[in-house]
Amino acid sequence: MPYELGPTLLSAERIAARVAELGAAITADYRGKTLFLVCVLKGSTIFWADLCRRIELPTVTDFCAVHCYGDGTDPSGALLLSHDLSLPIAGQEVLIVEDIVDTGRTLHLLRSHLLTRHPASLRICALLDKVERREVPVPLDYVGFAIPNEFVVGYGLDFAQQYRNLPYVATLKAT
Ligand code: IMP
After folding, report:
1. What's the CA-to-centroid distance between 16 and ligand 1, angstroms?
2. What SS3 state is found at 110?
């Protein structure tokens, strides 16, 4: 089915303002500590790149990826941690940086996995939250925007690996 970009949901300016607020809140909450950021590939890279520059603390970053079997649109597909962290997190103040929470399955898997490594703390910062779609509860400590149940692209989010470079978030609609 062909798709095209729909209306802009979040402008670049709105995103930048909210990312600055998130960075300030995180800076205040972790003052005096070193923060270990876990960037979830690939969709969170642009959010992480902007957010980490708004956090006025010493930070360490590592990357991981969760692979969903199937065509990527089926939320019931099996999940696998396809790229693990390269650094230990035991005793670290860990913040997962995620682009979007949909069913919650990805973050549930990742969070359970990371907790077995005994971080000092483990919190989650998600740019977008599709609240209506949640199947598995996950504690979200920082959320950029709650959004409606629509497929969105841009600011790191893709459809078939495209659209990640859009500086704003837009809906995708079937034509
Ligand atoms: P969850 O496991 O169902 O919460 O899905 C999380 C993952 O699904 C995200 O990290 C995205 O990769 C992908 N995803 C969910 N909704 C969207 C969307 O609207 N646009 C692009 N990717 C999405």
Report:
1. 21
2. helix
pTM value > 0.85: yes
Query: For residue 166, is it within any domain?
Result: no
Residue 146 lies in a domain: yes
Reference 65, options 93, 44, 95; nearest CA is 44
> Which residues, listed in sequence order, are joined to residue 60 by a DSSP beta bridge?
36
Residue 35 placed within a domain: yes
Residue 2 lies in a domain: no
Residues with CB under 6 A from ligand 1: 43, 75, 99-106, 151-153, 157
- What is the per-residue pLDDT for 96? 98
C-alpha–C-alpha distance, residues 70 and 94, integer Å:
30
- Assess whether 102 carries a catalytic annotation: yes
Query: Which uninterrupted H or E stretch holds 17?
Result: helix 12-29
Helix axes 45-52, 12-29, angle to 10 degrees: 60
Phi and psi dihedrals of 160, rounded to 5?
A: 50, 45
Per the structure, the complete domain to which residue 95 belongs is given by: 10-151
CATH number of the domain that residue 14 is part of: 3.40.50.2020
Distance 33 CA to ligand 1 centre (A): 31
Q: For residue 68, what pLDDT band results from cuts at 50, 70 and 90?
A: confident
pLDDT (0 to 100) of residue 75: 58
Give how many domains the chain has, as a whole number: 1
